[in-house]
Design a protein that fits this description.
This protein has 6 helices and 9 strands, in the order ααββαβαβαββαβββ. By secondary structure, the protein is an alpha/beta fold. The relative contact order is 0.13. The chain binds S-adenosyl-L-homocysteine. The site of S-adenosyl-L-homocysteine has 23 residues, from strand 2, helix 4 and strand 4.
Length: about 210
């Protein structure tokens, strides 16, 4: 099956929806989303929708991936932390636009699958860890950018503390049914917040998963 026509249609839709950053669009064009979705959903890989992955999790909607990536304002020297590796798709997109991506997942099986994809695609600037993303990655902090891809009840404090001065964090915050993407900008000891977009993510859970 050829995905090209669907991919072009998706890119056009993202542009219409306000994604103007060419680097973001070209990363979406270059990373094959079909390799990140389970076999039964592969023909829908370029639909602008979230799709189920294993462990009851989801690969985010392409618009949300593009929107958050664009809002992160990456540069090729930027060091980024992602919380919630899932399929690895968002990390793969980030990896094309920054220097290095650190990504944390609480399910071992998801992390193993994501690692295999990163290797197959030769995305060597992604470092992964099994762990509780709420705690961040203290050994590698501070991060110029942090992106949380699971819904939190409140802005996770430890993550905010691992932001570099002048850094930006994006995190979906709110109840289970609907969250807002909150942008946190750190300026010294000051953390300014604004809401960017209503979204619905799977929840950010405490601790490493016992099975899977
Ligand atoms: N960025 C992913 C989206 C994954 S969905 C992608 O592109 O596919 C959110 C992911 O966050 C799930 O895989 C879930 O297991 C993970 N997650 C939830 N709480 C977590 C936590 N405290 N630490 C690490 N990962 C977490």
């Amino acid at each position: 099956m050829s995905f090209e026509a669907n991919k072009i249609r998706l890119i056009m839709e993202l542009r219409r929806e306000g994604i103007g950053d060419r680097d973001v669009l070209s990363a979406i064009e270059r990373i094959p989303r079909e390799l990140f979705v389970p076999e039964p959903f592969r023909d829908r890989a370029y639909d602008n929708t979230a799709l189920p992955i294993s462990q009851g999790q989801t690969i985010s909607q392409p618009f949300v991936v593009a929107f958050m990536t664009q809002a992160l304002q990456l540069g090729d020297r930027t060091k980024v932390l992602e919380v919630g590796t899932g399929s690895g798709y968002q990390a793969a997109i980030l990896s094309r636009l920054c220097r290095r991506v650190y990504t944390i997942e609480r399910y071992r099986s998801l992390l193993q699958e994501a690692n295999r994809r990163f290797e197959a695609l030769r995305l060597y600037n992604i470092t992964t860890r099994l762990g509780d993303g709420n705690k961040g990655w203290p050994e590698q902090a501070p991060f110029e950018r942090i992106m949380v891809t699971a819904g939190a009840e409140a802005v996770p404090r430890e993550l905010a503390g691992q932001l570099a001065d002048g850094g930006i964090m994006l995190v979906p915050v709110g109840p289970r049914e609907e969250q807002q993407i909150v942008r946190v900008r750190r300026d010294g000891d000051d953390f300014a917040r604004d809401n960017l977009l209503p979204v619905r993510f799977v929840p950010l859970v405490d601790g490493v998963a016992r099975a899977g």
